[in-house]
Design goal:
With 119 residues, the protein is mainly alpha-helical. 59% of the residues lie in helices and 7% in strands. 13% of the residues are buried.
């Protein structure tokens, strides 16, 4: 799977800069057996730049999207919000700074970020 991911990233890199929210890096570091060295090498090898500075519009959009999700979940069988706030941070960052968004879990973003071009 890693080989296929690297091929997809190489193809996307030819189309422009690959930018990641810092939460993406956190998720990579949380992967079983992933070391900080491995993650840093992976980011360098794939040409992914990590954006560690978010501006106010991104944080405002995070709040809006997560609030809509929480409302929808409460109205649906009175459940608590299910998704992690990090998903909304990542999606809002992509919305503000990217023309396309790559995820291995597109269903997570299709409902709450329908305007993102998913790859």
């Amino acid at each position: 799977m890693l080989q296929k991911l690297q091929e997809i990233l190489a193809m996307q890199r030819q189309m422009g800069v690959l930018l990641s929210a810092r939460q993406f890096m956190w998720n990579l570091l949380a992967y079983p057996k992933a070391t900080e060295s491995f993650v840093n090498d992976f980011l360098a090898d794939t040409g992914i730049a990590v954006d560690f500075e978010f501006q106010q519009p991104v944080w405002v959009e995070v709040g809006r999207r997560f609030a809509r999700h929480a409302k929808r979940r409460r109205q649906s069988v009175h459940q608590v919000p299910k998704r992690l706030l990090a998903d909304f941070i990542i999606g809002s960052h992509a919305l503000a700074h990217a023309d396309r968004f790559m995820t291995l879990d597109p269903k997570r973003y299709e409902r709450d970020f329908p305007e993102l071009k998913l790859i």
